[in-house]
Amino acid sequence: MPVLLPTDSLFILMLLGLSGLLWRSLRREHLRRPWRQVASSRVAMISAVILLTYLLIALLDSIRIPAPASPKGGPNDAATFVGEPVTLLDLALDRLREGQEKTYSAPLAVYAHAREMTRRPDGREIWTYPRLRFGGGHLEHPETEHGRDLLRLAAGGLLMGLAAWLAGVTILILAARPWRAGRVERLGAVRRGDAAIPWRAVMLTALAICLLAGLMAGLSRGYHVLGTGKVGEDVLYQGLKSIRTGILIGTLTTVATLPLALGLGILAGYFRGWIDDVIQYFYTTLNSIPGVLLIAAAMLVMQSYMARHEAEIASLATRADFRLLALCLILGLTAWTGLCRLLRAETLKLREMEYIQAARALGVGRIMILWRHILPNLFHLVLISVALDFSSLVLAEAVLSYVNIGVDPATESWGNMINSARLEMAREPAVWWSLATAFAFMFALVLPANLFADAIRDAFDPRRAE
Amino acid sequence: MIDYLLRRLVHALPLLLGINILTFLLFFVVNTPDDMARMHLGQKHVTVEAIEKWKHERGYDQPLFWNGGAKGVEQVTRTIFYQKSLGLFLFRFGRSDAGRDIGADIAQRMWPSLAIAVPSLLAGLAVDISLALLLVFFRLTYLEFWGGALCVALMSVSSLFYIIGGQFLIGKLLRLTPISGYDDGLDAIRFVILPVAIAVVAGIGSGVRWYRTLFLEEVEKDYVRTARSKGLSEARVLFTHVLKNAMIPILTGVVVVLPLLFTGSLITESFFAIPGLGSYTIDAINQQDFAIVRSMVFLGSVLYILGLLLTDISYTLVDPRVRLS
């Protein structure tokens, strides 16, 4: 029986809602046209594949089951002491989670990053780089075997990735039912890369992702692919776990903004008069306060609230989860004003359109007009702003965590990784892999998100549509 | 004009009052002075006397809005709202929870903030506008495509990476500038170069994209076609006609952030250990000094509203078509 934390259930609900909306809009011709434009763009489709991979990892990391009674769970891994439920992602990455080292070690290393006193078998103590417990622990003579072993594991992993990709492609091709008339020609067009939807680019992106995942999986059978952090935890595992935090902040925050922005924006625009004045005053006031400061103030207040209710949020996981949820809500409460202003202006314009006046003349009720005639016509604005906000929210998480007003320090997040990397870069020799990992994971999420958002804006913004 | 300004100032008053009440609610009602005291004195094993003493020393031991125990005017004046919140309107910031004079701190710390923020803004503007004009000049070529792609890539990197990477590369490996720190007078230049350079680089992605859209909008207008049909070269059209007309949105976009330059940048200042208002705020957040955070929230809001006002005025100055009424 899965255990759900509040953010987990909200995230899953949101994904369900999102797919519902997407399915609905694909069934209507006037909404299908812009989606078709998005789908025909090669950059957008490649970005979509990468974003979906991230979403999938976040989803896997949001389904929790009670911890199996594991005898291996040492006392040193704080986040998963006995009794805390583990996610599906944790189960899949069991090797990474269990393979703890003492402290820093470089990517794919066999020896630790820093020297320490070690006792040789013959009883002498020498000042040297000790062997790692997990990284290359299976090697007898690391000097001679290390390179060959790496190649062996990498090749095995790549083959595994290739096999997974081939299996996926075979299923897709079978699903396209090539025995039907004309389908073979269309598959040929996909292979040549001149199909209406750039399937070939999608497939190649999927291949790249499969190969990368296979390579990582293969190498991580014997090594820490991206090294280990301060208390010996695997950096690759940290980076993968951070995906959920980043995605959650990017998506749940916008979900938190929508009710306020939509409700108040439509009310102000449609009813005008004093309602408009009050709502405008409200959002102008909120908007005048510099965002970071408002977030900082709200987070300080939230921290003291948590301190008062310590008994109710006792466990580490619920604490971290509560703080993540609070951060999303606070970010949402400070971010809704921009969208609200846009929606108000659009509603002001829409309410004077002929079809609204016709509906009014025919005696359609106010609520029905708002629901059936105004709300659907604001859809494109909401979609564009959600898409554009996503990447800036992911970036904001890192900054906020650095200022200590972000997620809980116990939560794996890119912001926390960067935060600790500050001191690591000052070491001699520098520990660069934590920072590089956080950079790579963030960049690989934010860049496709930006590109995809651009494609969405170009397709849905009526001013840009040709 | 004077009439308009007065009216705008009167309009700003309810806004400021709203901000004042909002911060008051956040800091004193949702989160009572007792909670603040407990956070500072440690959560457990705090005696009631210790909390009362902490509150008394900082003047938090009065009623919130209405003092029933006092006489006459003092019923209103001897309250937290009057003493701690209304004073902000006259820029009386009071003392921080650690006992320092906030007003004096702000006056002293705003100069280092300005020393970083003003050069960053000017250099950023120059670089962004020239690059955006170049992209527009080479539009419909490969250069524009790859330039645009580079902008998106630059935009997708967190500002923290620019700072950490810049400090590591220029400060630690190449040893061109000190990694962090600050000095008074002309010696400050050594310390200012790196933060300014990083701020400019970090802003290129979004800045160039923004100015490029401004220029592209302008390029499609009729006067540009006229200028071209007169036989002017493309460079002449862009760098004199288009640039001059695009100056209006550019200027007003800059004016709105001018007052906020005082408060500095939170992240840059704390990374480079610059004793400005940004690092002041961050330290206050980390030490949970509510008095300073409250003052900075109010100051920031006042400056933002001032920026909006300045924007309106600057419209009339640069664009003769706009008249304020």
The portion of residues assigned to helices of chain B is over 70%
- C-alpha termini separation of chain A: 51 Å
| Most extensive chain-chain interface | A-B, 47 and 47 residues
End-to-end separation of chain B: 7 Å
Residue share in β-strands of chain A: under 5%
Outline the low-pLDDT stretches of chain B.
none
**Rg calculated over all Cα atoms of chain B:** 25 Å
Overall body shape of chain B: globular
Structural class of chain A: mainly alpha
**Largest sheet of chain A at a glance?**
2 strands, antiparallel
How much helical structure, as a percent, in the residues of chain A?
55-70%
Number of helices of chain A: 17
Low-confidence regions of chain A: 71-81
Helical run tally of chain B = 14
Structural class of chain B: mainly alpha
Mean pLDDT across all residues of chain A, rounded?
A: 84
Order of helices and strands of chain A: HHHEEHHEEHHHHHHHHHHHH
Q: Summarize model confidence as the mean pLDDT of chain B.
A: 82
Task: Please describe the structure with a list of short key phrases separated by commas or semicolons.
heterodimer; A: 466 residues; mainly alpha; 17 helices; 4 strands; 67% helix; 3% strand; globular; B: 325 residues; 14 helices
Structure description:
The complex is a heterodimer of chains A (466) and B (325). The two termini of chain A are 51 Å apart. Chain A contains 17 helices and 4 strands. Chain A has helices at 6-26, 29-40, 42-60, 88-92, 94-98, 142-175, 183-192, 199-219, 235-271, 273-288, 291-308, 316-350, 354-361, 366-374, 379-402, 414-425, 433-460; strands spanning 64-65, 86-87, 116-119, 125-128. In chain A, strand 3 and strand 4 form a beta hairpin. With 466 residues, chain A is mostly helical. Chain B has 325 residues and is an all-alpha fold. At the A-B interface, helix 10, helix 11, helix 15, helix 16 and helix 17 of A face helix 1, helix 2, helix 7, helix 8 and helix 12 of B.
